[in-house]
Design a protein that fits this description.
With about 280 residues, the chain is an all-beta fold. The chain has one helix spanning about 35-45; strands spanning about 50, 55-60, 65-70, 75-85, 90-100, 105-110, 120, 125-135, 145-155, 160-175, 175-180, 180-185, 190-205, 210, 215-225, 230-235, 240-250, 255-260, 270, 275. It is built from one helix and 20 strands.
């Protein structure tokens, strides 16, 4: 069994430094990463503005949620734009998870692969930096599924700074799977069709997929020759994540299940199963 720490992850070359705001012309020197969330949180400033540096725009993962399974690592991008009348010296960022907006409540961190990202001067006063943050499911825990916050510190060329512990947010969700099977095939018109399936989701604590219980899942039908599915009924998964219901055969077409997702679990739609009605 894997032994997990309170820190979900510290990733990449950044090694999550102390993030002390340097004076103008200073050299940024990252320090070794702490191995506990509380230690890291104590080293970084939270929300503060010193001078006229401003973080003006933050986009995390293109505004989309990340669906994360149990084995494959995935990369989240973060784009940060900041401005200062004297120009921008550096921008730093990392993802953290925890209650509210207080980084003292953090229980997990992911740092970017490069401490300062890839930056472009938009103008003499404004810079835009892009970061790649690798998310490893082996370092995730179920309790950290949901909203993750992006801590950002922008440093002006004159030493001014703007630090925001929740400059942006993204969702890292437990990936889900869903199957569908309709039978018998073929079937006589007017006779019953039984549609089964199973809804499962990634369990980051055990590194396997497990049935997702007591969840509403829509049964949908698409008539042969058309392109649109319509919802026929909603069925709740049982104690093992299985689904089963009966409908009347009316015409040839495809049957599938569709799950809308939750605050911690990604949505998923099964592949349609064709039934020939005679």
């Amino acid at each position: 069994m894997r032994i997990r720490t309170t820190v979900a992850a510290v990733s990449g070359a950044l090694a999550l430094s102390a993030f002390v705001v340097p004076a103008a012309q200073a050299t940024y020197e990252p320090k070794p990463a702490p191995d506990r969330a509380a230690a890291l949180a104590a080293q970084v400033p939270a929300d503060e503005i010193d001078g006229d540096t401003r973080i003006t725009k933050v986009v995390v993962n293109g505004g989309k949620a990340l669906s994360l399974g149990t084995t494959a690592k995935k990369t989240i991008t973060a784009e940060v734009t900041a401005t200062d009348p004297e120009g921008i010296y550096e921008i730093h960022s990392f993802l953290w998870n925890g209650a509210g907006e207080d980084i003292d409540n953090a229980v997990g961190f992911f740092g970017p692969t490069s401490p300062t990202g890839t930056c472009t001067e938009v103008s003499a006063t404004t810079s835009k930096c892009k970061y790649s943050i690798v998310i490893d499911p082996a370092l995730m825990e179920n309790k950290t599924a949901g909203t993750w916050k992006l801590w950002v510190s922008a440093i002006g060329a004159d030493g001014d700074s703007h630090t925001d512990s929740v400059a942006g947010t993204t969702k890292i969700l437990r990936a889900s799977t869903l199957s569908a099977n309709a039978s018998p095939e073929p079937v006589v018109q007017g006779k019953p069709i039984t549609v089964t399936g199973k809804l499962a989701r990634a369990n980051w604590d055990t590194d396997v997929y497990a049935g997702y219980t007591a969840q509403p899942v829509k049964l949908q039908f698409r008539k042969a020759g058309t392109s649109t599915y319509s919802t026929v009924k909603t069925v709740n998964t049982n104690s093992t994540g299985n689904l089963k219901t009966t409908v009347t055969a009316a015409s040839d077409g495809y049957w599938r299940w569709a799950f809308a997702g939750t605050s911690t679990t990604a949505p998923v739609t099964a592949t349609g199963d064709y039934v020939d009605v005679r």
